[in-house]
Amino acid sequence: MSARKRIVVKIGSSLLANSKRLTLRYAFMHGLLSDIADLREQGYDVVLTSSGAVALGLNAVNKSPEEADVLDKQAAAACGQPLLLNAYGQVAAEHGYIIGQVLVTLGDIEERRSFLNIRNTIQRLFEHGVMPVVNENDTVTTQEIRVGDNDRLAAKVAHMIQADHLIILTSVDGLYDRDPSEPGAQFIETIDDVSSYLAVTDSTSALGSGGMLTKMHAANMAQDAGCETLIARGIIERPISSILAKERRHTRCVAKGTPASSWAVWLTNRLQMAGSLVLKQERIDAMLAGDLVVERADIVSIHGDFQKGDVLHIYNEADEECARGLTNFSSNETLLLARHLDQPISELLGYEGGTRVISPENLVMLQNHHLPWDVPTDQVTLVAS
After folding, report:
1. Residues comprising the binding site?
2. What is the pLDDT of residues 243-255, one digit of tens each?
3. Using CA atoms, how far apart are residues 326 and 314, in angstroms rounded to an integer?
4. Are residues 120 and 196 in the same domain?
């Protein structure tokens, strides 16, 4: 592990693209990359997760942000991405360093081997003094299979590289206890429990895909990975270092002490639910007591169409999420096994395999600081035939 401190900086679309002309805001970009140059000299490794590609490409497809559909946005991303990266590259070169683009999809982040490959690529870029710019590959992702916002993508990158800080630059100073336009709105300087503020975070900008809600989800994911999140307005002069030096207003989301293992953090911090299981209460009680395993006889119902190796969300019969774990069987196989408890697995599946649906080393109980997901209401299959 490098002795250099690591920062992931997320830049919102409204900071990079003029909302009326949908052109680059070069003044902000120069201030940002100049500040990063100074931070690099001070011993920081920096990763950018940058929005803006779709916004910058909308002129090319003759669409406004409000009227663009998914296909328009994919086409706009194809046009805007080279504009954005070319600008980053030129401005960074003026300040004496090189950028490298890392394009990812939801599958790359959620699949363990791809996740590690991305981490290794970023590490090698650091070794060569190159600043990674991480973007979702919006040209090939649809609404159903995309990360959906760069806030949570940035949090996953922060976990990936064991960052010290996740800095989210946006169009507001930070989090308020209500809409900041309302009389009496109070600024929140420090957050320990993200869940306390979810109800006041449902607004989004015209250009962006995420509002303060996604920033709170990102902060929670970063907390679990031992990374502090700082949310602040994106200004031109020293937009990052002025926050680190506590020279201007920002919201600080406190990290949760020493993080769990990288494996446990990866298992628990999901961007999308592949599937889920509802278990009998006696099995949940045993898991809470340390007996971390899921057998086919423990299953009450199965949700979703998942594959072997997917991470499942585990619920009790009161629809409370309790754990997450890597499944050894697909949803069809799991259903078959749970409905025929008296038959050997080899006879049911046609091959020899273990008896555990989820093994102890691949199962993690959720802690109080994790944000639970509601139990799915669609694609429910009861085990009873």
Report:
1. 10, 51, 138, 150, 209-215
2. 999 999 999 999 8
3. 10
4. yes
